[in-house]
Amino acid sequence: MNENERGGPSRRALIGWGGAGLALGAAAAGGGVALSDDGPSAAPAGSGGAVEFHGRHQAGIATPVQDRLHFAAFDVKTEDRAEFVRLLKDWTAAARLMTAGKPVGEGAYGGLAEAPPDDTGEALGLSPSRLTLTVGFGPSLFERFGLADRRPAALADLPKFPGDNLDKSRTGGDLCVQACADDPQVAVHAIRNLARVGFGKVAVRWSQLGFGKTSSTTPDAQTPRNLMGFKDGTRNIAGTETARLDKHVWVSASDGDAKSAWMTGGSYLVARRIRMNIETWDRASLQEQEDVFGRDKGEGAPVGKAKEHDAPFLKAMKPDAHVRLAHPDSNGGITILRRGYSFTDGTDGLGRLDAGLFFLAYQRDVREGFIPLQRRLSAHDALNEYIQHVGSAVFAVPPGVRDSHDWWGRALFSKEA
């Protein structure tokens, strides 16, 4: 089977991963509202409704940020290009159903008693909870399937930054899936079922659960707080700011060269697991905490200002204040779209919480976004005394799935695209 064929295998042909033949046309019934040229439309926060799966851009980037995250990085196990393409098509069909609040394939019950069900069933009876599924391709994927000449230059390997203490078991990955939802069970169900569909072709390399969004893409919403108690992402790019999104987040047809044209409408994702030294931070004085950030802890106002959204006077802050160093005015206008979550993963065995920020940032070019910004922060930021980057990955996030015949990665894998 070549990558341009759209037919799906039979149900029993896929019994090895317990899933139905997820034919793209058959899944179209879960599509929701019509495609928008600007990307997927979003259900209002707290509505429990479905976010439109189809769009020019993948949902889960500029979409209003949901409350929960399950992020997974995968290693590709198959050496067969056609088999991998078939997986991307099956994943797309499964995602189309799950984001609409429907079970995968023929569901969790009612099928052949002798065969595993197509869906694991733990999301039965739950609303879609604004589930979004966002796929990305890591640099290592371009070392296989004859893709070496299609790796965009903007998908740059991240250098080692001062202070990095990266755990190899939480770093890298051939591809990733970001599942965001307002119900953690819906997000976990989505990753679990994609992993089942991919059994034998891909394997989970590492994953991260997140709660308490630490950034917002909805300007009229209250700015969320991180585990250090400070408001985070005050001037984050809003999902309605199309001009800023086009300038800083979405890849343009004019970017790069012919080998990266398939990324038009996509974005580049940097994921960093940032451990917070919670116990040390909790013993710091309030004044020191506010000096580290350059904002007051209550209102979130910048130093010398009264309100959170007042324009900061950077020179009033200490030279190593986080806000001063990270502000676009200090970095030649560098702006990224943040979509991070807090995490707590038990303890480290020494009586300290394993807690922090799972940092997710989307940008138009990693070389002009995260890399120069992090170089500056890792060298001078006062916050470094209280944090450490322990996991890292970078991914090319392709454009959205346009319609019921489209699939994740088609522009990369299909000659017709």
Question: What is the makeup of the main sheet?
Answer: 9 strands, antiparallel
The N- and C-terminal alpha carbons lie at a distance of 18 Å
- The value of Rg in angstroms is 21 Å
Average pLDDT value? Answer: 89
Give the overall form: globular
**Structural class, judged by helices and strands?**
alpha+beta
Please identify the oligomeric state: single chain
Number of helices: 9
Share of residues in helices? 10-25%
The run of helices and strands is HEHEEHEHEHHHEEEHEH
Structural account:
With 417 residues, the chain is of the alpha+beta class. The chain has nine helices and nine strands. A hairpin with a 5-residue loop joins β7 and β8. The longest helix has 19 residues.
